[in-house]
Amino acid sequence: NVVGDKVVLAIKRIGEGFVSNLSSGGSAQCYTPTSEEIALAVRATKLLGLDFAGVDLLIGKNGPLLCEVNSNLQFRSSFDATGKNIADDIFEYIGKVL
After folding, report:
1. Cβ(89)–Cβ(8) under 8 Å?
2. Proportion of the chain above pLDDT 90, given as a percent
């Protein structure tokens, strides 16, 4: 999850086969992204002109691959996996840019 120009939270989704969506039975755990993953997530968010986004990455053999960028963040699943409320980061960011 990107807010402004930084990754404020990351989760790793785990599932059977290719399906890892939490609504389809996948699970999530707290994840520490690499510097390459952070750079890709922030760049994708900025290229789309977004102030915050949920960026889905796939872990490839040669580094991270961009899967999709979501303008609606997964507040509940992120909180359940990490205990961190990303709404706090978003409100802090909004307060700085206004």
Report:
1. yes
2. 67
3-state secondary structure of 28: strand
Cα separation values, 43 from 2, 35, 66, 89, 90, Å: 10, 12, 10, 19, 18
Stated pTM of the model: 0.87
78 to 48, 54, 60, 75: CA distances (angstroms): 22, 10, 23, 5
d(CA 57, CA 37): 8
Residue 22 has pLDDT above 70, yes or no: no
- 62 backbone φψ class: left, alpha, beta (φ>0; ψ -120 to 50): alpha
Q: Which of 49, 40, 51 is nearest to 73 (CA)?
A: 51
Of 15 and 80, the one with more pLDDT: 80
- The two three-digit tokens of residue 10, written as one number: 């990351």
